[in-house]
Write the structure tokens for this entry.
Amino acid sequence: MKVTMLYSFLKADIEYIERELEQAISSSSPSLRDASLHLLQAGGKRIRPVFVLLAAKFGDYRIERVKNVAVALELIHMASLVHDDVIDNAKLRRGQPTVKAEWDNRMAMYTGDYIFARALEYMTDIENAEAHRILSNTMVELCIGEINQIKDKYQYSQNLRDYLRRIKRKTAILMAASCQLGALAADVPDGLHQKFYQFGYNVGMAFQITDDILDFTATEKELGKPAGSDLLQGNVTLPALYALEDERLREQIMQVGEHTTKQEMAEIIHQMKRSDVLDRSRALSQRYLRKALVILDELPSNRTKKSLRDIAKFVGKRKY
Amino acid sequence: MKVTMLYSFLKADIEYIERELEQAISSSSPSLRDASLHLLQAGGKRIRPVFVLLAAKFGDYRIERVKNVAVALELIHMASLVHDDVIDNAKLRRGQPTVKAEWDNRMAMYTGDYIFARALEYMTDIENAEAHRILSNTMVELCIGEINQIKDKYQYSQNLRDYLRRIKRKTAILMAASCQLGALAADVPDGLHQKFYQFGYNVGMAFQITDDILDFTATEKELGKPAGSDLLQGNVTLPALYALEDERLREQIMQVGEHTTKQEMAEIIHQMKRSDVLDRSRALSQRYLRKALVILDELPSNRTKKSLRDIAKFVGKRKY
């Protein structure tokens, strides 16, 4: 099942946002436009705009108002992907050559800055200081998360808390803010905003853990990059963290680096699959999803609620 | 004369902003804090906060409100300096080792992102959509300016318009926004906002042209980097642009690159000083300053006006 089928009743609005995104990153500078459009066309699940729209459906849903928040949040996500490419030296993302591969790092950095700034432009239509506070806070946390990710690279003595705090900042907070800001932009009663935040946060945590599992279990074709890429880049994710508890795996993992061959990585992944580290990782992801579903139960019942539930469940099952 | 003497009556408020800046970039992440504080301690003229405060003096001056704008604008300036260091491969800025030299590029990029995000946090207290629109617009233009600066490197067929458009985006717009936002934050009558913008814009243009002249005329000690650095990095500034009109100088300038020795650069600068290119550059800078002073005449008369006039004059005369 495709994730887009889960919110088919939003199809027209999602397409509208897609066009807005395209317009947002069009600029008078041709080279900038090309770099950004390229990124846009590489696609993505647009989960953040979908969260904004679905949360807004619990209030006074007006697409003209809500779209600004949806576009802004997806642009912030895109900008962070562009900067990640500068950082991670990733050769490929979503199977497409990265902005970095086609342009040099300098252009990529300013393209990211530009997309950030465009996101802010979209937010200016929202006259609500609380919304701006949430967004700027989210961006501060995102940056701290990125910096910690660099600092924590190849640090094999880090613990579960370090990992969870990192993915919270890197992924979960932006999804939490998407839900919260969608609710806020549609004047959903104040008392519910925190629940939307919590729902997005828990789905986000599960989403990132699943991502980190798939980095080991999916194929290179599905990932658009070699399996085990996180490990190759020194990112100690949840499965790796669990694997470090095993003496033999620990030794192998700590030797992974740029020199590691595909076969060596395949062997490590093979052993991880034979151990319980992936199941334990899935179990933690499921725990976050269950929390998300419990929170969902506390929200008013409507058609939209089912979509949110389906998305939460999909996040736990997705294979790519 | 020191520029700080021009606004001594703001001393207490400027010091207050200095402490706020320090607090703004303090974070729970020690490495991030060190990198940012380092930048803060390297100093700077704090011209943007000063413009904010001086413009605000024409209205209902309340430091608690105005300080948020002043801090935000200086943080945006600082963030762009950090990203410039990643970009320019500059070894030194203001005589201090750059963030880049002490940390690697990756940390510098995210430190810049972090400072940007902190700037936005400061702005959230300003409940005025127009202020947010001006700021986000300024940031978009800044980014386009940076991207064009990369694209225009070593492009010796560019013309005066390319250069002016670039420094407008790179420098003048942020100074213009500082004046405009200071006026806006202090409820200066709407009709005057554009004049403040125009004053900041013209001073900003003169400021950058002066900077570009000093890059050739000041000593390495004054600059904190070798004279002729712009040319060495392929940045075709106004004096270089005029020098390109001279056949002999053109040939020498087009051969400048990383291999160029200090003596070769000294010889080029010597010839530029003997020609009229520096005087012509100064004349253009003066033209912008005269425009700024004409605009200033149209503003209400008060003690602050004299400070703005002194700063404008100082910009044209400064030797470092």
Notes: Residues 3-317 of chain A form a domain with the Farnesyl Diphosphate Synthase fold (CATH 1.10.600.10). Chain A has one domain: 3-317. Chain A is about 75% helix and 0% strand. The first helix of chain A runs from residue 11 to 24.
